[in-house]
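Hi all, long-time lurker, first post. I run a small reading group and we've been trying to get comfortable going from sequence to structure in the token notation. Rather than ask abstract questions, I figured I'd post a concrete chain and ask someone more experienced to write out its structure so we can walk through it together at our next meeting. Sequence below, copied exactly:
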Amino acid sequence: MRYLFVFLVLISSLFSMEFYAKLEPINNYSVKSAVSGKVIYTNDEIEGKFANNSIVVKIDSEVNEVELKQSLNKLESINQMIDIQQKNYERLLKISSKSGFEKDTQKLNVINLESSKADMLIKIATLKDTIKNKKLMEKNNYIYNIAVEKDDYVNPGTLLYEAKDLSKGKLEIYVPIADVDTIKTKTIYIDDEKTDLKINKIYDVADSKHISSYKCEIIINNPKTFSRLVKIEFK
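-- Answer (accepted) --
Happy to help. Here is the structure in token form:
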């Protein structure tokens, strides 16, 4: 009986796998500028805190807003011109004494105005997108770092700030390929405590650094602390 017990302990130890990983936020965001412009506002008070539908960085958009207003006025004028020219064309069609050339010329007037309208709609959409991209807001993420200051000039691709989603934590470990099927059936222990956690994702391609292992991801809801080393066991 004693030998059987020792044998079972040995078997259990063979199938208990231990790993260590740093608990990281489930998502990290590096927010870069999509436009060029001068920084006119940075919310330094929110750095190191959670956002609450807060503006983090604002880039000067005054000229864009004036241009947008004028473009909307031009669009209204174009619509009025199209309406007038279309009615004139419809009248010409009813006048038999008017030549085909005159009617075609009037039709071309309508077509040219429709083309101008399409160009103006594209310009308005572009301006709205530019203005939107100059006012960077965060709903509820943790603002880790604001990388620019007021009066800085930024170009597309310039890092503006970094944010983190702290609603969940993520553990990443690298498991030998041969053991992947085994750990799927095991219970996960975190820092020697039994949990009901499951493997969230297994990347079925060998890692470029850990060439004989697959990366496995474990998600933890509402962790209290981050960036700490965690012991992970599969038993």
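A couple of things your group might point at:
The radius of gyration is 32 Å.
Residues 60 and 215 are 43 Å apart (CA to CA).
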